[in-house]
Amino acid sequence: MLKRVKVLRFLRNEVVLITGGSSGIGKELALEAARRGAIVVVTSRNQEKLDQVARQCLLLSGRPAFAYVMDATSPDQIDEVLDKIQHQVGGIDVLVNSAGLGEFSPAAGQSYKTMKTMTDVNLLALMYISRCVARRMMDQGYGAIINMGSACGKIPTPNSAAYSATKAGVIQFDNVLRMEVADYGVQVLTVNPGPVSTPFFTKADANGNYRSHLPKWLFIAPDELARRVWNNVGYKTREINVPGYVAYLGWAYQVIPGLGDWAIKKFFDFQQNKNEL
């Protein structure tokens, strides 16, 4: 497998598809891929923002860049856009599933609609797009699938139950997909960042209760995360856990979950108020 995906290490002239590419981590991944000479394709539901990112990619790479409006929760739109990319751009060499959303609030107070939306976008859409693109990569004999997990998928934190569940699902989905496609020359890379300095928290944590417990030094710059991701494509890397403590704390929680619960609740100064529900 490694011999076939080595070609992706430099990204030059490789076709890179990034969902959720109009803002946040997806946008930074698109710009960094363009700096490395990739032919970037971005998708999201916002045409205006997509066009802006595509123009920036064109200027950075000197190569064509493409933007397609796509609702990641619609399998029909996914199929349609993937077919357009195949015919208008070419085979996809690297897929990045970066589209995602969250809402940080107590699970007992969340609506079914909120839970379903997070599951549909963060997990189900990611699985379906990965499945569709994996088939094409298996036929062409190489490729890389990069899926955005989260530190929340390894380390539980108060007020993130549904979101954490979707990200834990991403991690386990990738663990199985990785085995299934490895013999076809396809790398599966799971990215599990801690908090990233993007507009994500503006919507996910509207009242600021979650973010207020996180020191500023804990936040990761999105451009630095993008460089870390692209520096690991084409290698044997299975996961990127940023900061490095994510992997160790995740392991420690599995070994001593009782102590982990106590420490996490202490860190977040967590005391559930029934009035919040």
Automatic annotation (TrEMBL):
Pfam families: adh_short (PF00106). It comes from the Bacteria. Coiled coil: none annotated. GO terms for molecular function: oxidoreductase activity. The keyword S-adenosyl-L-methionine does not apply. Its EC number is 1.-.-.-. Keywords: Oxidoreductase. PANTHER family: DEHYDROGENASE/REDUCTASE SDR FAMILY MEMBER 7B (PTHR44196), DEHYDROGENASE_REDUCTASE SDR FAMILY MEMBER 7B (PTHR44196:SF1). Belongs to the short-chain dehydrogenases/reductases (SDR) family. This is SDR family oxidoreductase. It comes from Limosilactobacillus panis.
